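SEQUENCE-TO-STRUCTURE ENTRY
===========================

Subject: a protein chain together with a token-level encoding of how that chain folds.

Sequence line: the amino acid chain in single-letter code, read from start to end.

Question of interest: how does this chain fold, as expressed in backbone structure tokens?
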Amino acid sequence: MKKEFLDLGKQPITNSFLNEGEFDNEFLFNLKAVFDDETKLVSLKEFVSPEMMFNNVYAHRASESYTMRESFKKLAKKLQKEFFPTGANVLEIGSNDGVFIRHFNPDTTVAVEPCSNLAELTNDMGYKTYPEFWDTNLAKKLKENHSYFDLIYSANTISHIEDLDEVFKAVKLSLSDNGIFIMEDPSLYHVMENVSYDIFYDEHVHVFSVTALNNVLRKNGLEIFRVDNLSVHGGSNRIYIKLSDNKYQEVEQSVSENLEKENVFGINDFNTYLSFSNKVEKSKNDLISILKDFKSQGKKIVSYGATYKSATIFNYCGIGTDLLDYVTDTTENKQGKYTPGMHIPIVSPEKGFDETVDVAYLGAWNFKKEICQKESEFLKRGGKFVTHVPNVHIVEIENG
């Protein structure tokens, strides 16, 4: 039985950055989250068509973040050293702009990327890329064309796919006998702990706990053997998975430790989610209050980063041009457009993040440290960053 616990109101497609004149026909949907009593899985109640979200104008480029470039590079080297010192057949599901697979041999590496504009990038890099959605039909095609895979990797993609049974059946079809499947996605535990409710948006069909993944994987012939807790994206889990009958990889203590941690926190208890919903409402009210207070003082307020997460915040809280002058973002194909839903103009940091700015909401709060280092002069001259995680507050320079 699925129980609703969170209602974030009408929300847009988060990667749909609009031109002036495109506002009237914008697609909106009801963003609500539910908890499955049986599997303990947290998902959206209403799903958006994948074709509407992942298409030939997809804006996000993982390589544009130094933090992400270094994180993927470090991981690729770690996996090669620990598991595949002599090489491996590699498959990445959701390869984006090639930030991870660029560290592997293109002759033995295959990518799946449904956004055709991104698939073109990795194809041009020399990696055979299938511009399709991941399912058992594609898995069978890859098996015929490339054989089995020793490493299947997917970062921030599996949480985007509605039918998890289909996803994991396709993985099982594709793994070599001793192969490993590694997936990284935001951690529900950290979302609940940090009240980072902006993790809920159209693309995030599910927000995973280790508990829920353990339940769903097991019924599909797969088993978790290691869990790494990461700080990236405000708290993520890197889940290492093997075939259930693979005796080569032993199940490590990190699995039971994470299951126990989540159980103690209340991941299995619906009352935990009701409490979270109340915290979300308080966070909304506190954010509106602090921004209105700065506005009443005549401060110029902008948002730093036209992120997908900030779209949830702006639309749920009703934050528009009455409070924010504009949003700055380094992504060129967002500049000159407007944010989804609230239609706030987006400009380059060179044009917009200047000495006239007094306050900046951290749309990319999960890169707080990187941003504070980059914008140290803004902080030194008295500029203030505001975030809502883990509660609404002003980021102090000494904490940056």
In short: The first strand starts at residue 2 and ends at 12. The chain has a mean pLDDT of 95. The domain at 2-33+271-399 is CATH 3.40.50.720 (Rossmann fold). The chain has two domains: 2-33+271-399, 41-267.
